[in-house]
Amino acid sequence: MVARGNVTEIIFLGFSQKENVQKALCVMFLLLYVAVVLGNGFVVVTIMASKGLASPMYFFLGFLSLVELCYCSVTAAKLISDSFTRKRVISLRGCIMQIFFLHFLGGTEIFLLTVMAYDRYVAICRPLHYVSVMNQRACGLLVGAAWGGGLLHSAGQTFLIFQLSFCGPNVIDHYFCDVHPVLKLACFDTFLPSLLIILNGGSISVVSFLVLLASYAVILCSLRSCTSTGRSKALSTCASHLAVVGLFFIPCSFVYLRPCVSLPAHKIVAVFYTVVTPLLNPVIYSFRNAEMKNAMRRLMRTKAVGEEK
């Protein structure tokens, strides 16, 4: 099943129609995408291979890195391949699939960040109950709920797109398919679908963001009774989490909490939450973490010894 109408393919305007600019952007995005894949992939492999990183925090971090890798691939891979062609085209079916996976993975990331905030809340505010509360079964259920929440969110967004008819034009001023640019191609007034999409995405973003802020506010208040060493470690962890939350939620809110209006700035802002955030997450969460750095060194030494043999 695909959306109705006589439009069968959609053309992206991208960032520029100039060939030299297009080639320069291709090189830049290719380097960024490779860095995202290597950084997040290394985090996933390190967590899977290291017995010392068996705590819930690293369990959630491994899934977050996996989601980031896939999330960036949904948009960046298509952008890079389009840079080698003069006409940047995607089928209508492919466009709707891109919207589905973009919101599925984006929604999953929002819920995972919320789960990670809850994990830090239990670890810092209820340390004596941490092992019993965040047991293996509970962690599995929380991750499953994050994936399920992302799926429900995406299904709602995609269902609304499926109900529309697209009669042309078939050009969008973006570098990937997203709900707001695609809604502008519909044959009839899209006020109600736009409102429902904003309510769907906006409610998830706002509620999750408020829950995250409330969690970290409670955590920061509880740190007054901790020792200076414990307070310093907890603040470092919370600062890393809040940095990632800000990098992801602020650009998303700028795009998805607005009416169905496409602005030139939307493309630049989209780069932040589709490419820059997945690139910085391994740096913020992992490469500043002593346990992760030690585990990575051990993994690389083990691999080097294995190659020598």
TrEMBL record:
It is a multi-pass membrane protein. It is found in: Cell membrane. InterPro entries: GPCR_Rhodpsn, GPCR_Rhodpsn_7TM, Olfact_rcpt, Olfactory_Receptors. The chain crosses the membrane at residues 25-49, 55-74, 95-118, 195-223, 235-256, 268-287. One of its GO terms (cellular component) is plasma membrane. GO terms for molecular function: G protein-coupled receptor activity; olfactory receptor activity. Residues 39-285 form the G-protein coupled receptors family 1 profile domain. It comes from the Eukaryota. Pfam families: 7tm_4. Belongs to the G-protein coupled receptor 1 family. This is Olfactory receptor. It comes from Heterocephalus glaber.
